[in-house]
Amino acid sequence: MADPNNFDLIKMIKNMMVTEAPPRDPLLPSFDLEGVAAGLKEGKYKKVIVMTGAGISVAAGIPDFRTPGTGLYDNLQKYNLPHPTAVFDIDFFGQNPKPFYLLAKELYPGNFNPTAAHYFIKLLHEKGILLRNFTQNIDTLERVAGIPAEVLVEAHGSFGSAHCTSKLCKEPHDIEWVKEAVFADRIPECTKCGGLVKPDIVFFGEGLPSRFFEKTNADFPEADLLIVIGTSLQVQPFASLIRRVGENCPRLLINREAVGQGEGLLRFDLPSNYRDAKHLGDIEDSIRKLADLVGWRDDLEALVRGGPAVTPPTIPVATTEDTPHSVVPADSVGAVESQHAVSEGTSAEPPADEKVNSKDDGPSCEPKDAPSEKKDDPVPDKADENSE
Questions:
Q1: Contacts for 34-38 with beta carbons within 8 Å, 24 or more apart?
Q2: pLDDT number for residue 15
Q3: Of the candidates 267, 238, 239, which has an alpha carbon nearest to the alpha carbon of residue 251?
């Protein structure tokens, strides 16, 4: 039997070797909405990244995925699926595409208008300080709100374009043609090979768009403020992006619930916190309060009153490539998740030989075995509004 004294000695040596980092001076005057608003009002931030999830689209009337009773996952029984996430499973889609297209008919862009949260992001762009909007949502409401394609990263794809699902074909198809077929209750078939055609939404078993990795690596080290709105921070690799900004970049969470907490993550109420702020509550009310504090309320309401300037534009989006990430949709009409998180300080794209099987990860937005988000929302995840 091992001498317990040896373990005590080892423990003592380890404790001697571990030194705590000295406390950091706070980057914010207060760790709340007011603290971040002060910096925005002073013009302190020039490169703002906004991460969004399903929570920002709930006010538009798009259901989240997880809320008991009203969430999408609780209302998929009518499609006779083996499990709720099958509707976003690329293998199941290949065998039976009808459930997805029945659901797509309900969620298709054109039926919903952007929210104040969408227009706040547009306002950041108009103020010249939006570096990028990384969204999990597939509802294209960012585009409808007028957020330019060049500052938008649709991490989980969108209804904005469509391709043949055959790996040997991948022929692009006009999205209006696809929409016409969907609303006529027809299954869109490839005009070139006869295969199935679907909007470029990232399904479970598919890779994330290459643009996601390119912009992640380029943008996050440059950001001087990160705002996270309406997401449960459960869907990977999207959720891990909060760790990729520099140490001197403040981070603000606007959500219905506190998420993404812990050492190495969002620290909020921890003694080691020096840069993380949170504001919990209704997303729309929170956004308007932030606009009030910064002095932008009139500008925001002018955008909201103006309404959608255009219908969802059919603009090219990065094609989904066979990256090592296998994902499942996860946020309000738009998020996806894979088991794989992106480690802090490493390239967003994993080794080429690494293939993730996320079937056990779960729902099209979150791992299957992940605790359900009462108020969160990825793909539509109430966590997003609530969070994501």
A1: 34/293, 35/250, 35/277, 36/225, 36/227, 36/250, 36/252, 36/277, 36/290, 37/290, 37/293, 37/294, 38/293
A2: 53
A3: 267
**Cα-Cα-Cα-Cα dihedral sign, residues 270, 66, 108, 204:** positive
The DSSP H or E segment spanning 264 is: none
Annotated catalytic residue within 156, 163, 173, 279:
156
* Cis peptide, bond prior to residue 237, ω within 30 of zero: yes
Q: In the chain, what percentage of residues exceed pLDDT 70?
A: 70
Sign of the torsion formed by the C-alpha atoms of 9, 11, 14 and 19: negative
Give me the residues of the chain with pLDDT under 50, please: 16-20, 309-388
Specify whether 125 is catalytic: no
Please state the pTM of the whole predicted model: 0.75
Query: Which of these, 52, 46, 34, 32, lies nearest to 385 by C-alpha position?
Result: 52
Give pLDDT, residue 76: 73
